[in-house]
Write a structure and sequence with these properties.
The structure is a single chain. The chain is mainly alpha-helical. The longest helix is centred in the middle third of the chain and has 25 residues. 68% of the residues lie in helices and 0% in strands. It contains 5 helices and no strands.
Amino acid sequence: MKDLVGGMMKCFGGPNLADYFPILKFIDPQGITKQTKFYFEKMFAIFDGIIDEKLKSRGEIEKNDLLEALIDINQRDEAELTRKDIKHLLLMYKISRTINDFGSL
């Protein structure tokens, strides 16, 4: 998973010709949009698997972690968070953790 986050950070942090020449945005000459989409889809697939696994094991083992809390909020009657929201929050959490790990080296 660190490789995926590292790839995302490379896409976000690297120079993009389309930033300087907006007409190139639609052409995507460096393939940054395509690469970014690939990394996001892979991360969201991993998160879907983790969420599914957590939902299957609910009730067997009580764990009070971030994902458990987010699923609890999702399964309330009001449903303030959707599954998509949970995946995006997990993505932001993972990216911020990775940045902190790199910063502490």
